[in-house]
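Re-run with default settings, no changes from the original entry. Doing this only to confirm the output is reproducible before filing.
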Amino acid sequence: MTELELTIAMPALNEEEGVEATVREALSALDDLDAPGEVLVVDDGSTDRTPEILAALTAEDSRLRVYTHARNLGIGGFNRRMIEEARGRWVLFTSSDGEFDPREALRFLAVAREQGADAVLGYRTDKTYDAWRNVVSSSFNALTYLCFGARFRDIGSMRLLRRELFHPLPLYSQSAFLNAERLLAGRRRGAVIVEVPIEHRSRRGGVARGAKPRRVVEAARDLALTRARWFRFDRYYG
């Protein structure tokens, strides 16, 4: 497998309204990259026209790869798949719904190189969320600080990770807390993490699922379990 400089990775679940525009933005970012790169989409069991749209885009541009799950595996499944399948030294985790501009990958790479960082996290200065999602997002950022002493402004946002450092880390969460677990374990292993402001756009379509009560409960459970493992860190993350 040939290693590339950058993988722009995104999951897709029934995103027929916006996935084409987002993928094209990501491919346009690669046009301005000073090294080879790719776009990786993990289709997490879509049942709408998303697979057809991705197939057509793949036929147009060989820099796009699509990995398809036969059934929906959720964030634990697609998040792990994105870093496992990535061929880039750096992996940008973003979304396929258009909330983030994947062309920010170039700025994130520049920041990482200038500051010697292993991860660059975007924080949304003005979230286009309703009140409930804002409460959920703020609460988990605060709980992560209280439980682990790590002050991340926006854990669920777009992020760039150095693959060789973060890929080997064992992760146990199956919920959205997996994003925090990866950053926390990397930080404790010595990763240099910096944060930069980014724009947050409205979704191009599809349905947001991250703040449903069941998902919130699952994330809270994973936070508690991760905290328990923290006392035997080397056993679980060594």
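The chain has one domain: 4-237. The first strand starts at residue 4 and ends at 12.
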